[in-house]
């Protein structure tokens, strides 16, 4: 089959042996595959990523001297079953699958490990238990975005944001746009998006952001229709005084039960929820400095370099910082159905499609935020330029 091989930073189209599905696996004919920001990083920084992966217990991550078929955001059709499968669906059934498979007891990250070639190819092997049929006639293009949208859905769920809380999305690249879409699907009433790029701000508005700002001109945290009630530590302290004045005005009131109840119900005063979707050094520290006290910061952007921040700033503001990665199978399935049911429209993210021969050009084009957000690969297409 034809595939795009990544080795030593180069992307070359080559004919390679068609992969064979092993026990519990099936072979898909790839319909569409998205180019992910992590693919762009892995092309040039995979050795650093491999060292990090090895440190957390996954030593099979791709290395620069290997020949890797990238691609973990894909949709396809069932072509062949391996041994030991339940053969749940007919050949030709449109499906998506989590980009992870298992050889014996060894998990492999599809498209990010040499033993598990990814979707920059005509066919790809997936695990049957991690495969889901595409419902409601959802297009192959939109179904291929199940994976990145599931990353965003996981981030939104992990944030524990309420519908009446304000969300601030810092960075409107593909993952930031996906987070905005999922926040609105979750019913969050106010989403403020911030990005330096005019094109990305335009896409953020199309994804449902209620307020979109250029951080060079406008402080995102002051841009909401209802600015945060707590903007500084003085506000937190005065809230304590005002509350105690009112409670102590009631004779014999066991006021401490109110505080216990607020904590038990997680209903104590809080700041907004901030999603860091940039992933460059300095962003976390900048958000900790600018965000109101009692904020929850969800780090979704993947920073590939070492970074620093001031813990005392987060301590004095009592800010929660939460890091997120990936999704679980339930979130992946639910995301697919949210797309198929029309609750989420991924169309604004898709800004181009190329064939296998156009992947190298697509990587270059994605370096310009004014041109593209998400480029898809159609292995059957002859398009080479975007």
TrEMBL record:
UniProt keyword list: Oxidoreductase
Pfam families in the record: ADH_N (PF08240), ADH_zinc_N (PF00107)
Keyword presence, Transferase: no
CDD domains, per the entry: Zn_ADH8
Location of the Enoyl reductase (ER) domain: 9-377
Molecular function, one GO term: oxidoreductase activity
SMART domains: PKS_ER
Taxonomic superkingdom: Bacteria
Keyword GTP-binding attributed: no
InterPro entries in the cross-refs: ADH-like_C, ADH-like_N, ER, GroES-like_sf, NAD(P)-bd_dom_sf
Protein's recorded name: Alcohol dehydrogenase
